[in-house]
Amino acid sequence: MTLDIQTIEPSALHAEMLRLRQEKKMDFLVNLIGMDWGEEGLGVIYMLESTETGETLTIKTATTDRQTPYIDSVSDIWQIANIYEREVYDFYGIRFLNHPDMRRIFLREDWVGYPLRKDDKTAEENPLRMTDEPLSDTTTEYYRDADGTIKEKKNVVWGPDEYVVNVGPQHPSTHGVLHMRASLDGETVKKIGLVLGYIHRGIEKISESLTYPQMLALTDRLDYFSAMQNRHALCMCIEKAIGLEVSPRVQYIRTIMDELQRIASHCIYYACMTMDTGALTAFFYTFREREELCKIFEDNFGGRLIMNYNTIGGVMYDIQPDFAKRVKEFSKHLRARFHEYQDIYTGNVIAEQRMKGVGCISNADAISLGITGPAGRASGWHNDVRKRHPYALYDQLKFREIVREEGDTNARHWNRMDEMLESLNIVDQLIDNIPAGDIQTKRKPIVKLPEGDYYQAVESSRGEFGVFIESKGDKSPYRVHYRSSSLPLANAMDTATRGQKFADLIAIGASMDFVIPDIDR
Amino acid sequence: MALIGKPKIKSIPYEEFKDNESLEKMIDELNAHGTNVIVTTADKLINWGRSNSLWPMNFGTSCCAIELMAMGAARFDMARFGFEVTRTSPRQADLILVCGTITYKMAPVLKRLYDQMADPKYVIAIGGCTISGGPFTKSYHVLMGVDKILPVDVYVPGCPPRPEAFYYGMMQLQRKMKIENFFGTVNHKDKDLHKTEAKALEKKIINQEEQA
Questions:
Q1: Which among A255, A257, A419, B210 counts the fewest CB atoms within 10 Å?
Q2: pLDDT in tens, A68-109
């Protein structure tokens, strides 16, 4: 969709945001995007949504001071803003007033410059540093005092008496290269701090120098378990911007593939969850089913994990003649396997005790922390993008939005299990009536988006995945931002694990099911 | 109980040890009488054992690590080749499988993990990112090839490579190991830049101490 952006002066920002939160009930901060508009200055785009009315609002603010840009923080209004603002500080050097923790989050603390600024010269100033990475225990807070001058003070993040244990960056149960610093009191977790960026590949910056068709390849590599949905989001965003219609056949194929991808992803979730809690046998059960899916994927478009399937205006290849037959076989096969998963893992009293009542997140916290997807729906928040902002064929389909109220590890686990069944139901509704038609709508070889801002969200395997594009009318985007579905999940670890046992941190992390390259981008 | 007489062991003349023909003749004789004898060199025996029980350290940062997981599962089953004992501690691993993009922030960590591994150690670079930066060559934060910091033995291209490609790469490493001389010169160590650097530094320090 095309975004209609309201501009607010930085001086009035905080009061206006507070008013929107309280009066218009804008309680979900979808996105907080750092921007560099050149002469207009550095700024931020806020995307807000009300969970009650479904109303959306986009606001931007900018400051012309490039040396020491200051903007008021909104981290006291939405909890998720805390980490988003640190990201903007890291990439654009915008300092947020009254933000308690202005440290870099993705890049090393001794990094010079701000890489996403248009005038930045990172390559010369930042050679490969093989020294140990500095990790400071204190941080700076900027604030405006009574007479309007900006001052700074030191905040202590990790006190000298705190017992801090590092989990990661190379740790098998962080599902990648996440680095969590956990402050412990005996065996109880007091606080978690995230150190991100071990797989920060700068995809957003690279995309600015690529043409639109070239950009597509990188989305598959963000959250590789949602490769299909990610690319679907980007393709849809571009198609809607240039007014390209795709044929019903493509819509059917895309919807089926998205759901098959979701099943494959949740299969891996189950395998990782069981492995992290020590049930190695169960790992093989869902991997067996995933391989069946992979065989279907391989035969239809060659890829097993990274598909490179969607294109602007269609899909890369037509489906094989036996596709429908094989998917139906798979659907039957998988439905008959759910009792095995229950028998070997969730029916076990050990698994139950490690999951029930552990790592609770309240509904208000889930919304404020922006936890979407199955994890957010476990806290009773109806946040399915397929229902909120239907795309592809989802408005014509009958399916249930899986929501639970408990907010614990168990609820998150069962949400995913139920979603697999629900995805099968969706696939079964579509598979028999795929219409004939073109798989690729004709378009010009060079894609140019009209000037403006565009946003498109999809329900990826682990929550809302969004693509934001600002175009100046060129063949490459001026700014691309991906709303990561995993970043809020990792950020929520602090809330979920406080007061829990250290061993449960692993189980809670597994139930969140974050994918690190999606966090770091 | 009948006493079993002591077998009379004929001494073999020294020259015959070096003569393959007479050894082979002796083995044939023994085999014909139903005795199981194999003659090989110690190097071959050790390399046979080492190459068939490789313990990899799974250093997965992104997509390729998932294909590694698939390798561990039933369809591809890496236990067939003796690779199934994946370790997450560098102290217990023979080789490091670098699966996925290595960034500037990760590079010192990876280097440290490699240094913690015990000799003899091997590196397999898996996927386009570890070989050359892959699709992220324009990035400001991606290491363009893991061979800039580690001595790589085998490269496995792909994005991500199929499990079959993983196997091909790991079997290439097995072949490489089978021609090594375990006793005496180990050809692998020679190209370890890090080691030669460390040795040069050591020499320099000793020289300085001597001069002082």
A1: B210
A2: 888 888 888 888 999 999 999 989 989 888 888 888 889 888
User: How long is chain A?
Assistant: 521
Domains of chain A, first to last: 5-121+139-157 (3.30.460.80), 216-443 (1.10.645.10)
CB spacing of A170 vs B109 below 8 angstroms:
yes
Q: Is the dihedral of CA A199, A204, A205, A207 positive or negative?
A: positive
Q: Can you tell me the ipTM of this complex?
A: 0.86
Q: What is the mean pLDDT of chain A?
A: 88
Taking CB atoms and an 8 Å limit, are B109 and A306 in contact across chains?
Answer: no
Counting Cβ atoms within 10 Å, is residue A230 exposed (0-12), middle (13-18) or buried (19+)? buried
> Which positions ≥6 away from B111 have C-beta within 8 Å?
A130, B149, B150
Q: Across the strands, what pairs with A185? A: A188
Tokens, residue A230 = 């990610």
* B66 and A CB contact within 8 Å: yes
Instruction: Extract long-range pairs of B156-159: CB within 8 Å, 24+ residues apart.
Output: B156/B124, B156/B125, B156/B126, B156/B127, B157/B127, B157/B128, B157/B131, B158/B64, B158/B126, B158/B127, B158/B128, B159/A306, B159/B63, B159/B127, B159/B128, B159/B129, B159/B134, B159/B135
Q: Was domain B55-179 assigned CATH 3.40.50.300?
A: no
> How far is it, in rounded angstroms, from Cα A301 to Cα A299?
6
Instruction: Tell me the nearest-neighbour CA distance from A302 into chain B, angstroms.
Output: 10
Pull the structure tokens for residue A332.
């039957």
Is A129 in Cβ contact with B104 (below 8 Å)? yes
Cβ pair A202:B141 closer than 8 A: yes
What single string gives the DSSP state of each residue in A456-496?
EEEEETTEEEEEEEEE-SSSS-SEEEEE-SHHHHHHTHHHH
Chain B residues close to A305, C-beta within 8 Å: 63, 66-67, 160
pLDDT of residue B120: 82
The residue length of chain B stands at 212
Q: What is the pLDDT of residue A118?
A: 85
Instruction: Please check whether residue B105 touches A, CB under 8 A.
Output: yes
| Closest Cα in chain B, distance from residue A359 (Å) | 26
Contact between chains at A115 and B141 (C-beta distance less than 8 A) = yes
From the list B106, B139, B142, the residue facing A177 with the nearest CB is B106
Answer yes or no: are the C-beta atoms of A375 and A512 closer than 8 Å: yes
